Amino acid sequence: MLEKNKIEGAVDAVLTLMKAKDDIGLVDLPKKIDLQFNIKRIPKIKHKNIPVELPTSIHYDLREVCIFVKDLNKKNREYDATVQHYEDLFRKHKIDSINKIVPIKALRTDYSLPSSKVQLAKAYDLYLGDSSVMGLLPGILGKIFYAKKKTVPVKVDLDAKDLKTVVDKAVNNTRCTLQGTGSSCLVTVAHDKMKKEQIVGNVEAACKQLMEQVPGGKSNIRNMYIKSTDTASVPIYLDTESANKVKLPAVKENKVAEFVDEITTVEGGKVMVRGDGQVIVLKDKKNKQGGKEKPKKTQGEPEGSENVEGSQEGLKVAQVAAEIMEDKNEELDAAEGKDIDENDVEVHDSDNSEDDDDVEKDDTVQTKRSKKVVAKSGKRQQKRKSLEGNDEVTVEKKKQKWTEVATKRESDKKLNKRSRKARKT
């Protein structure tokens, strides 16, 4: 149970530790006092802000505040008129806590580089954002701002009638951000320049509001501590009950609309456009030939085999292409003067078959080679024609050849390994 005397004792301990490590620099800035708590069950939510109203403001004079506003004139590249407009607006409502006004156009021009965004994230203590541009800020600022809780902009409505109350509420109070990824959470509730009674009041008010607004309620909070940046944590609350008794509220899943259509830039592919703007290219896993799935490549198959395995036409084309390459190689050999085995050539000439014995001995070697090449090419043409009409060639025979080649390669590799070992020994 949360008791006030425990909070007072913890505050005294933290202030004593802060004084022991007090290192005053050039500027005596207030040091934060944080409330840290752990939850039993992590809710399935992302970036949920829990506003915490404090009885005493945590704002101080040297605290720097930056605000992101919308552009008044989107066509004009200059944004000085926009800055002047909001300065007059804040002066009219007597708001003096804003130190920097940054329009969206300035973020896209002056702060477009990551290095400039990092400098902007380190320059100020608190960031506010107009409600009309809060949807644009995550895409413009990116993870440089949204990866850390302290740099996430706080939403304010600059069109409100009582503008001073809205801005003061955002500046003077604090908030707790639940990321949905870890069990530990941290929220700033005071600083060391405040009085002890003010610190105790802020801590007590923050604890009560968090116990009511955290998903699962008070039963989902395991412990609470008070700490500073340079001090150890001092406990003020502890709950030893099991996490199985915690009941989290149901979270509604937002179903995103999807639209699927064909795409011309990818063969056999489709494109899916989601409602959140995400575009996904879907590749068709089925082969266009007959709508069947592409066969899996077996071990030892040569490259490109998956294109000819599924059809007889692919086998014929592959065989014809191989024979054409052989013919070309033989023609090149003949042109270079290489020997061709006479046994591999059979000349079929019906008109001159009886005069083969009377061939003159004075014929040159080049003429004989050309006749043999022509005869062999004619024989291969006949063989190709027979293959076109032959339907007995099956995929199984082709697979058998591939497996033989693969086994031969494996045996050669084993022999090479053995020979290498023998050489080493």
The biggest beta sheet is recorded as: 4 strands, antiparallel
The total of beta strands comes to 13
CATH superfamily of the largest domain: Ribosomal protein L1/L10, rRNA-binding domain
* C-alpha termini separation: 79 Å
| Assigned CATH architecture of the largest domain | 2-Layer Sandwich
* Fraction in beta strands: 15-25%
- The unreliable regions are 287-311, 338-363
Number of DSSP helices? 11
Basic shape: elongated
Description:
The protein is α/β, with parallel strands linked by helices. The chain folds into 2 domains: 4-243, Ribosomal protein L1/L10, rRNA-binding domain (Ribulose 1,5 Bisphosphate Carboxylase/Oxygenase), CATH 3.30.190.20; 310-347 and 363-424, no CATH class. It is 38% helix and 17% strand. The chain contains 11 helices and 13 strands. It has helices spanning 4-20, 80-92, 104-109, 114-123, 137-141, 143-146, 163-172, 196-213, 312-336, 365-389, 395-424, and strands at 32-39, 48-52, 65-69, 100-103, 126-130, 154-156, 174-178, 184-191, 221-228, 234-238, 258-262, 269-274, 279-283. Helix 1 (4-20) crosses helix 8 (196-213) and helix 9 (312-336) packs antiparallel against helix 10 (365-389). The chain is elongated, with a radius of gyration of 41 Å.
Kindly summarize this structure in a few lines:
Helix content is about 40%, strand content about 15%. It is of the alpha/beta class and about 425 residues long.
Any key phrases for this structure?
425 residues, four-stranded antiparallel sheet, four-stranded parallel sheet, alpha/beta, Ribulose 1,5 Bisphosphate Carboxylase/Oxygenase
